[in-house]
Amino acid sequence: MAAASAEKKRYLVGGNWKSNGSVTFVRDMINNVLNKMKFEESKLEVVIAPMIIHVPSAKAMLHSHLHVCAQNIAAEGKKAQTGEVKAEQVQDFGLKWAIVGHSERRQHYLESNELVAEKVKRCQECHLTAIVCIGERLEEREAGQTHDVLKQQLDAVKASVKDWSRIVIAYEPVWAIGTGKTASPEIAQEAHEFIRKWIQGSVSDAVANATRIIYGGSVSDANAESLITQKDIDGFLVGGASLTEKFGTIVETVNKFAP
Ligand SMILES: O=C[C@H](O)COP(=O)(O)O
Predict the structure, then answer these.
(1) Minimal-distance CA residue to ligand 1 atom 6
(2) In 3-state terms, what secondary structure has residue 196?
(3) In this model, does residue 1 exceed pLDDT 70?
(4) How far apart are CA 120 and CA 87, in angstroms?
(5) What are the annotated GO cellular component locations (predicted)?
(6) Whether the model pTM is above 0.90
(7) CATH number of 11-257
């Protein structure tokens, strides 16, 4: 029986800083924007994913209600792997979150669905909550293959998950990432509904209701309200706008509409 969270579903906003930032940026963004944001912890969780070398300073500087998230973890837990960070090390450092399967890693580092499934398994073994990114490329959407792609990506990770309360699904259509072309609220809602129905059919109703399905792809202060008011959108994974003060506005908008 798959475990579902007994807690009320809190919305989630993640800021993925990708390979951006400097020591000065981290300090200024945290002190001037992140630590000043106002939101209700009972309604919303906020996680920030800096580059790995900035994780220690970010963790030390962020107020304790803001969580630090790894951008990636190694799929393999045993071998020596130059340049990789294992789930155990993320856990040992006191982090509770990791992004897995971001489309930039799928595209540029050739991460397959199977490799992403291994990473999800590693997160589960180390009690990390995985933000599992899925989404179709433009040519796949244009060919009418969006649901097939999402289903394949979801099917691949299913066997790795024992505890669904430690899984967040991030729907990130590849064509909307960093392009300024946000999915319309209707397109995003339709994909989120498909994902929720997949969880319902493949896991259970309770898990489908409890699992956060968040949207990523050119989220900004200008479109946050129209997206977050969609029925099946439970938060955001924000890239570019998380590097600016717009992130504070996005968090406050989500807080306003979170149940
Ligand atoms: O992880 C975040 C996503 O890739 C979205 O990035 P973006 O907001 O810059 O489009």
Answers:
(1) 239
(2) helix
(3) no
(4) 10
(5) cytosol
(6) yes
(7) 3.20.20.70
Cα dihedral 135/139/141/142 (nearest 10) = 170
Percent of the chain's residues with pLDDT above 70: 97
Stretch (H or E) spanning 214: strand 212-215
Of 169, 182, 237, 244, the residue with max ligand 1 atoms within 8 A of its CB, to mutate for a pocket test, comes to 237
**Any catalytic annotation for residue 102?**
yes
Residue tagged active-site, from 45, 102, 118, 136: 102
Q: Other CB atoms closer than 10 Å to residue 105's CB: what's the count?
A: 18
Domain locations in the chain as residue ranges:
11-257
Query: Whole-angstrom Cα distance, residue 225 to residue 102?
Result: 24
Which of 165, 91, 154, 156 shows the shortest CA–CA distance to 123?
A: 91
C-alpha span between 226 and 184 (Å, rounded): 9
Distance from the Cα of residue 230 to its chain's centroid: 18
pLDDT value of residue 77:
81
Tell me which residue has its CA closest to atom 7 in ligand 1: 239
111 belongs to the catalytic site: no
| Percent of the chain at pLDDT exceeding 90 | 92
Helix (H) or strand (E) holding 166: none
